[in-house]
Amino acid sequence: QVQLVESGGGLVQAGGTLRLSCEASGRTSGRYSMGWFRQAPGKEREFVAAISWRAGNTYYQDSVKGRFAISGDITKNTMSLQMNSLKPEDTAVYYCAARAGVYVGATYVYREATDYNCWGQGTQVTVSS
Fold it and tell me: How confident is the model at residue 53, as a pLDDT?
């Protein structure tokens, strides 16, 4: 099992920046793919960005393309989400997710919540207008 801990959330004004981090621990010796999801009040959890286990392939939700950047360091078991030009509609609890202990394509980017079997507790991001 892989345990995930997020950090870096907070309150920021529109147009500001935040950097979220996710640290994985536990059974991290095998392949695992990681991603970020978010859930706003009264809405379903939605995909934000994800990165492949190898090759650094990435995929973003259309609304964050050009503003957010996901990166990962397999050697340190960490993943980050740099969020620039934040908008009030980005306000949500952000969750780090990992796909581990099952088949993981080396260069595939997993985009569905059902693709992931490990989740962090979430970190709140609030963007004021």
Answer: 86
